[in-house]
Amino acid sequence: MSDPLPTPVPDVTPETTAFWDATANGTLLLPRCEHCDSIFWYPRAVCPSCGNLDVTWIPASGRGSVYSFTIIRRAVPPYAESAPFVVAYVELEEGLRILTNVVQCEPDEVEIGMPVEVVFHDTGEERALYRFRPTGR
Which of 11, 61, 118, 130 has the fewest CB within 10 Å, making it most exposed? Predict the structure, then answer.
């Protein structure tokens, strides 16, 4: 297995603070519009469906399946030492697709439809990066 992926500290904005604070506690939050009830991705303060600013955060199940992926075999620092690694879209049980990494398995083992669950990698700065691993590992 390749080296572990780096865990750079994410850029946190006022609109994403709640999301990133929750990752430190091992919780994946999703934004939901209180006006039209849409759940959307990526974390932001404005609903992309109706433009409303009344957005709240709901906990996600943390489970989903690999929708699409690619194996990165060459990378630039700080990821160069970690290649090969997987970048994937994971479709959450809630119906959203999020861009992430699949970890804790060999890149060649990843398949479309593979069930996965969220794991959090600590950045050391009171935030964690969400990634996904095959279910049951």
Answer: 11
